[in-house]
Specification:
It is found in: Cytoplasm. This protein is of the alpha/beta class. It has helices at residues 2-17, 61-66, 76-81, 85-90, 94-97, 110-116, 142-152, 171-190, 208-221, 237-250, 265-273, 283-288, 322-326, 329-335, 340-366, 370-381, 389-398; strands spanning 20-27, 30-37, 40-44, 46-51, 71-74, 103-106, 120-123, 126-130, 137-140, 156-158, 197-199, 201-202, 226-228, 257-259, 278-281, 292-295, 299-302. Helix 7 packs across helix 8 (171-190), helix 9 (208-221) packs parallel to helix 10 (237-250) and helix 11 (265-273) packs parallel to helix 15 (340-366). Bound molecules: zinc ion. Residues 315-316, 319, 321, 323-324, 349, 352 line the site of zinc ion (ZN).
């Protein structure tokens, strides 16, 4: 009898120990980490592109592998409606269905409901919303969110949290925070698969004391990693970076910190240097649809402008993406807004831009050249303009000297 018991317990320990985070380099507050997940090893800081319905808009999984993308985010809300989580389960899970062998993170579905549903209420049971497809009122309790996410089978699942608008003030901020802690406990109870991990989400709005309180409770319950939620909702940048800095300062170092919904290049760099490790945003692919390419020099390149009509350079001559190796600004200018290939070409470039930016941050940490990197990055992004005050404040807080 005994050997059997020992074997089974060893197996389950082996499964959980497969998922772990190691900090392999550190400069100031920033870390270069390695997150081991069941489907890939993710180097952090990392940007996770968002594949809404089990597909990246205009980009194939094979192309993401070529870019060395190791982890994607998929939206539970969209997949739960179409094709439906039961069908994804029947297809063998999300990895198999979308032909993506590497890691996936799914959100809880709650945030999408808040942003997409006309009618949405929250009570202790969960989130109630009107289905945009059938018009019926539906309930999403924490247990249901986990059931759906377990059917999808992502490496990382997110807890259902009580999302309120970031500019909300008053007692509701603290109530939503406490409710999110209770809902995490319900999610944990419903979580049965050992090959998936569950991230808690730190809430507390822009109130730094509430954030600290929430970190304390959530960190106690976190196993592999933790998220900082409720930001990027239109708050002042001066509040945004202070919340990230405050949470990172009190979070235990062994947990990777995922700042949800962050994707502007400057935000990625500043948050990484403040000690955050994971980010996601639809920004690079959404902005590509309007013909906007992300570039180091000047930040943005609007390829629909007439000046690119006869510009036969690649978007960025230092970029190694397929688009920059193959097509000119003039070609993209000619097809953008007319042919879907235009959006595809810019999306490929923009995702590569974000992945390369994070790689450069990790390299700067490894080579202990963070100050040099920061000056060269900000100098290029804001060439011809001023570095915003919030960036200067955050850089000052980290103890680096800006010469740009
Ligand atoms: Zn490129």
């Amino acid at each position: 009898m005994a050997p059997n018991v020992a074997t089974s317990s060893t197996t389950s320990e082996a499964e959980t120990s497969e998922m772990k985070f190691d900090v392999i380099g550190r400069v100031g507050l920033a870390r270069h980490g390695r997150l081991r997940l069941p489907h890939s090893v993710v180097e952090t800081p990392v940007f996770m592109p968002v594949g809404t319905q089990g597909t990246m808009k205009g980009v194939l999984p094979e192309q993401l592998i070529d870019m060395d993308c190791r982890i994607l985010l998929c939206n539970t809300y969209h997949l739960g409606h179409r094709p439906g989580h039961e069908r994804v389960r029947a297809a063998g899970g999300l990895h198999k269905m979308m032909n993506w062998p590497r890691s996936i993170l799914t959100d809880s579905g709650g945030f999408q409901m808040v942003s997409l549903s006309k009618l949405m209420t929250v009570d202790e049971n969960g989130v109630n919303f009107e289905s945009p497809h059938t018009g019926e009122m539906m309930a999403l309790p924490p247990e249901k969110s986990i059931e759906i996410q377990q059917a999808l089978g992502a490496d990382i699942m997110m807890q259902l949290d009580h999302v309120i608008h970031v500019l909300t003030t008053g007692d509701i901020v603290e109530e939503a925070m406490h409710r999110s802690i209770r809902w995490l406990d319900r999610c944990t109870k419903a979580h049965t698969r050992t090959d998936q991990t569950l991230f808690p989400i730190v809430q507390g709005g822009l109130n730094l004391d509430l954030r600290k309180k929430c970190v304390e409770e959530m960190a106690k319950r976190a196993k592999v990693g933790i998220a900082i939620g409720g930001l990027s909702g239109g708050e002042e940048k001066s509040s945004f970076w202070r919340v990230v800095a405050t949470c990172c300062a009190v979070l235990p170092p062994h947990l990777p910190r995922y700042v949800m919904g962050v994707g502007f290049p400057v935000d990625l760099v500043i948050c990484s240097l403040l000690g955050a490790d994971m980010f996601d945003c639809v920004y690079p692919t959404r902005t590509a649809r309007f013909g906007t390419a992300l570039v180091r020099r000047g930040g943005l390149m609007q390829l629909n402008q007439n000046r690119y009509k006869t510009d036969f350079e690649p978007i960025d001559d230092r970029c190694t993406c397929h688009t920059c190796r193959t097509y000119t600004r003039a070609y993209i200018h000619g097809v953008i807004g007319k042919e879907t290939v235009g959006c595809h070409l810019v999306s490929v470039h923009n995702i590569q831009h974000q992945l390369d930016l994070m790689r450069d941050v990790r390299r700067a940490i490894d080579e202990e050249k963070v100050g040099e990197f920061l000056n060269s990055f900000l100098g290029e992004q804001f060439s011809g303009g001023e570095v915003p005050q919030w960036v200067r404040d955050a850089v000052g807080h980290m103890g680096y000297k800006l010469v740009v």
